[in-house]
Amino acid sequence: MILRRAAVLGAAAAMVLAACGTGTTPAPSGATAGCTVGVSWNNFQQPRWAAHDEPNLKKTVEDGGGKYISADANLSAEQQLTDVDTLISQGAKVLILLAQDNKAILPALQKAKDAGVPVIAYDRLIEDASILYITFDNVLVGKAEAEAVLAKVPTGNYVLIKGDPGDPNASTFLPQGWDEAGLKAKVDAGDITILNGPDGTFTDAWKTEKAQQNMEAIIDKAVADGNTIDAILAENDSTALGVVGALTAKNYGFPPLSGQDGDPANLNNVALGKQYVDVFKNANELGKTAGAAALELCKGTAMASLTLPSGLIDASVAPVAGLSAKPFTTPDGTSVQSFILQPTPLTAENLQVAIDAGQITKEDLCKGVDPATGPAACK
Amino acid sequence: MTNEADATPVSGQVQPPARTSLRGLIAQTEIDLRLFGMLVALGAILLTFNILSEGKLFQPTNMVTLAVQATGVAIIATGMVLVIVSRNIDLSVGSLVGVIAMTYALLMTDWMPALGIGADFPFRWAIALGLGIGLGALVGGLQGYIIAYVGVPSFIVTLGGLLSIRGVVWYLSSGAAVSGLDPSFQLIGGGAQGSIGGAATWILGLVGCAAIVALLVNGRRQRRRFGFPVRPMWAEAVIGVLGCVAVLGVAAFANANLWPEGLANRIAVEQNWGPAPDGGWKIPTGFPNPIVLLIGVTLVMTWMANRRRFGRYVYAYGGNPDAAELAGINTRWTILKTYVLMGILCALAAAIASARLNGSTLDVGQSYELYVIAAAVVGGTSFAGGIGTIPGAVLGAFVMQSLAYGLSFIGVNSPGQNVVAGIVLIVAVGFDTFNRRRGS
Fold first, then answer.
1. CB–CB of A82/A55 below 8 Å?
2. Could you tell me the residue ranges of all domains in chain A?
3. Are A195 and A218 in contact (CB under 8 A)?
4. 3-class DSSP state of B356
């Protein structure tokens, strides 16, 4: 009890000191020396953050002369509020938040505002006009999936495998991307027929087994109707894995199939020719972007005039709108500044990108692949 | 012991009524009306979907798909019957399937190669399967021990299992999907090459037919010997003929499912079968391996439930726990064994699921517990304990899966499938409860 009280007192004292610090010392203009960037992860156990996002973010900050501090909320929205307090009291001048819950994080955001600390919403949106939103474009993910498959199979019979019906990504954003790539126009023009109804088939909780069972029924129906399946659009990798399972069980062969996430099992399927395209969000580049933006914010640059240094991130993922921050309208209608990166479609031709990004080892990628006939990345 | 079990009067073996009404005639055949009713319901469901799909559902390949999809849940449901009969529940089966499926995948991709058991090591599939079954029995046994000997309610223990075992799946693979199983292991999941072929299917059918006749003859002799009333000869003949026609009909239907042409051509080239005959290769697939596995599990489980001391103890305990205890049955040991059995059945279901996927994901087996309990309950297992049959649970699994498959086949999306499955569950059990109340 005594110990606990002492800790609280200590934390309070640190906060007071930190507040004094920001109040009395004017920020060194034009220099990033002493810039402390605080990152609040929602769940560091998910391997992606530790493997890709953090190292790049940290390196970018430290290369720019800043200091990187972080906390892990371990899937607790409550813990994240405490973490944000601690990060501010440790002297963070910029906060990067991967929110566990985009509503529960709002009190933390208010604290940051009160302390005069700018906030970057990392990967996940926070509904507030004051934030800078850094993420991948989910509509573009859908667009990249459909573009790749449509280029391969411009006309014919398509099967649409969607994710959980309750997830807006599954029901809205990704299909919107498919339509932007020209799916709807081709269906309307009669070039493409969708075999499983106009809306395709949803998959409860994005479950691989469920996708497999659904796909088996769709194949049976297509065979019974005398139709050939020419291409399959699956929204993500877990459903695409189920589709490959169904195609294998039915010995159907492997029509062009899409997916996203860059899961190792699916990248291996791309190398094996069982999945045509896997749209990959290169988290390394997202980390670099956030690091660079945080350093700029430290200098006191206004969010609307942020610009990423050229050459920092790979041109293939750079925002379509250019390297300057652009306004983004959230689903609630709030306008925020943003950097929206492009996803990378991976096919057998450019699988080397996944190895270079550290997403998969060559050994895992090329498991079971005949080097003579396999893709270039496996030679 | 078996003699004593035989001598125990089983419900339904009452003096046949002498009336000659239809009801009386059916009663003389001593057909289990419940099971028969479920078969009729299953037929009606399939017929409805066949009409809705304009006659496209009733094809061997579709029925084989449906049956294979039902095997995992059906296999576990055979054990769930015993668990529910003994007044317990097992909510952990889905998570257990998940952790064992992931174990199979990791064994074959990472762990065994790390121990120097490379891809060309013989019988790797059997080693993996054995380890999986061992793991299932171990985890099941642990849960059973806590339930039977420590006395924590099974609902709580297995709810804890549901949560924590699923968490272990995550730690095993760090959340990633693992794929690339041995080709021989993949055969457990079925498919054209994972089927037993035309000849073996016919043999299996004939053996089944012979077994039915032998059972009838033996049953008649036993009844004579102990002075029980015997069925009229015509009833024996009807059952024998109907049984044989059904078994051979199913075998013929499975054999009407042919290898996909592309696969047949490819294998023909690889194995030098010579030129394809006119009209292409016509190779019957017969029963897929998972179906054969399910048939085997159903027979063994039925035998254990009806003919072995263990099975009779389970029913005795479910009917009246106190009486069973006072009669000197080691009830704790019996309960523990039902959970060991569940673990083993989960390992078999996990083998089929991972073989079908050629790997495993974080969510393999998720919500199996609900489907399995639904199958057992639709199949006539009572939560009050003491009542439930294994063939009934298998049929229940087929009823639930035929709904899911049929709806999927005619293009109804998963929210719609869930609505129908839920309603059917309630209606089936409601109907059964109504009938039992009227009967008593």
1. no
2. 2-137+283-342, 139-280+347-378
3. yes
4. helix
CATH 3.40.50.2300 holds for A139-280+347-378: yes
* Same-domain status, B294 and B232: no
- In this predicted structure, the answer to whether residue B85 has a pLDDT above a threshold of 70 is yes
Residue type, B191: G
Are B69 and A265 a contacting pair at CB < 8 A? no
CA A202/CA B410 separation, integer angstroms: 14
What DSSP element (H or E) covers A99?
A: none
Q: How confident is the model at residue B20 (pLDDT cuts 50, 70, 90)?
A: low
Give the nearest chain B residue to A50 (CA atoms).
Answer: B174
CA atoms within 13 A on the CB side of B374: 22
Mark whether B203 and B164 lie in a shared domain. no
* Same-domain pairing of B199 and B184: no
Chain B interface, Cβ < 8 Å to A: 53, 56-57, 59, 61-62, 65, 68-69, 109, 174-180, 189-192, 259-260, 262-263, 353, 356-359, 361, 363-366, 404-405, 408-409, 411, 413-415, 418
CB contact under 8 A, A220 and B409: yes
pLDDT in tens, A300-337: 899 999 999 988 998 889 998 889 999 998 878 889 99
Q: What is the CATH number of domain A2-137+283-342?
A: 3.40.50.2300
Residues of A in contact with B353 (CB under 8 A): 209
* pLDDT over 70 at B369, yes or no: yes
Q: Identify the domain boundary among B252, B286, B320.
A: B286
- Same domain for B327 and B411, yes or no, is yes
Assess if residue B13 is contained within a domain. no
DSSP state of A95: E
Does residue B245 fall inside a structural domain? yes
B413 shares a domain with B342: yes
Residue B74 in contact with residue B393, Cβ under 8 Å? yes
Higher pLDDT, B197 or B2: B197
* Domain end among B286, B303, B333: B286
Which of A214, A223, A251 lies nearest to residue B191, judging by beta carbons? A251
Residue of chain B whose Cα is closest to the Cα of A164: B414
Does the distance separating the beta carbons of B356 and A245 come in below 8 Å?
Answer: yes
Nearest-by-CA chain B residue for A248: B191
Q: What is the CATH number of the domain that holds B177?
A: 1.10.3470
CA distance A329 to A331: 7
Substitution target in B58, B109, B408 with the highest count of A β-carbons within 10 Å is B408
Answer yes or no: same fold for A2-137+283-342 and A139-280+347-378. yes
pLDDT band at residue B8 using 50, 70 and 90 as cut-offs = very low
Q: Kindly state whether residues B219 and B184 are assigned to the same domain.
A: no
The DSSP symbol for B363 reads T
Which of B178, B356, B371 has the most A C-beta neighbours within 10 Å, making it the best mutation to test the interface with A? B356
The distance of B428 to chain A (nearest Cα, Å) reads: 24
Q: How many angstroms separate the CA atoms of B167 and B147, rounded?
A: 21
Does the complex come out with an ipTM higher than 0.85? no
For the stretch A166-207, pLDDT in tens is 887 888 889 999 999 999 999 999 999 999 988 899 998 889
| Residue B111 resides in a domain | yes
**pTM, rounded to two decimals:** 0.83
Q: Residue A202 and residue B414: Cβ atoms within 8 Å?
A: yes
Q: Are residues B103 and B239 in the same domain?
A: no
pLDDT band at A27 (very low <50, low <70, confident <90, very high): very low
A348-354 long-range Cβ contacts below 8 angstroms, 24+ apart: A348/A270, A348/A271, A348/A273, A348/A375, A348/A376, A349/A375, A349/A376, A351/A267, A351/A270, A351/A271, A351/A375, A351/A376, A351/A377, A351/A378, A352/A376, A352/A377, A353/A280, A353/A282, A354/A262, A354/A267, A354/A280
Residue of B nearest to A161 (CA): B413
Please check the confidence at residue A10 and state whether its pLDDT lies above 70.
Answer: no
Query: What number is the average pLDDT over the span B100-116?
Result: 94
